[in-house]
Write a structure and sequence with these properties.
Blueprint lengths: L9 H12 L5 E3 L18 E6 L17 E4 L3
Parallel strand pairs: 1-2, 2-3
């Protein structure tokens, strides 16, 4: 999922949990605010938070990061 908001939303969390409980794997963008603050839906337990890296395998300057992020993948030059 390539979307993010700074606060939790009950309807989005319900949709994430429903998808997870029905066998979906949700890879979710960690966000583009260059912060360690949670971004949703990536911060939900049933989402796999993905940060952005550059073509030289460093963190993209805009990408959110922190211990809640599970992995990083190419997302910018």
């Amino acid at each position: 999922l390539s979307l993010s908001v700074p606060r939790s939303d009950a309807a989005v969390e319900l949709a994430v949990n429903n998808a997870w409980n029905n066998g979906a794997f949700l890879a979710c963008a960690a966000g583009n605010s260059n912060t360690t603050a949670f971004s949703y839906p990536a911060a939900y337990t049933n989402c796999f938070a993905v940060a952005s890296t550059t073509s030289s395998d460093t963190r993209s300057s805009f990408s959110n990061y922190g211990p809640w992020v599970k992995i990083a993948a190419p997302g910018s030059l």
